[in-house]
Amino acid sequence: MSGPVPPPAAFGAFELRAMAALLAQGRTLCAASLLLTAVALVGLFVSDWRAPLWLAAAAGALQLYYAVRVDFDARLLQALAARAETDADGGVARLDAALAALGLRKPGAVARDWPARWRGARALLRKQAGLVILQSAALLAALGNA
User: Fold this and answer.
1) Are 49 and 146 in contact (CB under 8 A)?
2) Which of 5, 34, 68, 70 is the 20 to 30 Å CA partner of 129?
3) Are 40 and 135 in contact (CB under 8 A)?
């Protein structure tokens, strides 16, 4: 019986690119959500059953927030991967300094390791996907009540 696979000892360009590729899937989710949001908004103008349509539109707006966050992370990881071989820590210090300089991270915040950052990024992607599923379910409910 095998246990959980331990994380790699070092995080290099390959790991950064792999995570960026996973997060890039959020762009497809965003495109699908924008289409579902458009359908919900059109439905609000032509339908009497509004609650599921409002839910689908609201979920689409919230999904857009997560899409921006996920895409930002994906692009940061791609940029770090381009220079990961020159940074002993895989770019963690460079990333934290850049985020602090932009006001996106508290200057005195505790540094997180890569596994913690992966968990956070995947959680954002899961929330984005969950909202797209919620949108789909709300639109199906609206069609069922039409």
Assistant:
1) yes
2) 5
3) yes
